[in-house]
Amino acid sequence: MVRHILARVFDAKTDERAWRIGADGEQAVGDQLAALDARWRILHAVRVGERGADIDHVVIGPGGVFTVNSKNHPKASIWVGGDTFMVNGSRVPYIRNSRHEARRASRLLAEHVGFPVPVTGVIAVVGARRGFTVKNQPRDGAVTVVTRRGIRRYLTSQPQRLGLREIDAIHEVARRSTTWQR
Hints:
Blueprint: H1 2-9, H2 15-34, E1 41-48, E2 53-61, E3 64-73, E4 77-81, E5 84-87, E6 90-92, H3 94-113, E7 119-127, E8 131-136, E9 143-147, H4 151-156, H5 164-174
């Protein structure tokens, strides 16, 4: 207990601190998503598979279906160029992971809803006080990188891809935990 308190006071890097920073980022992005209008459906912390993985947010609306990964790097510099995502000069696999997550979600949703469900991965960056640069977005449009403050604008600027019936049908299967257990 004392160790955790001292770690917080001195801002030491611990598993507890990493979890807390991640949770704060998810909450910040969730707050932005909560302001979308009633045509949008949002699911948070969707457990996928049996290994404890989860999708931070699944967003379903007129602009399509999106898996959103929140990445909170409060004191970092973020640079994105194509499929390269760097945090303080170190390459991280966020784009690869987001692309995989979106493909998996697309497959699972389509299996349960009975029609193709294209899914776009979104990486929503929180913090990055030392800089946020997107030289160019990842290839093939399967993943987009935005700031937490830019996520609503990004989602609502997408062309209409789904009508209300499709939104409701996809949301109905996405809400079921059994949809995600493969």
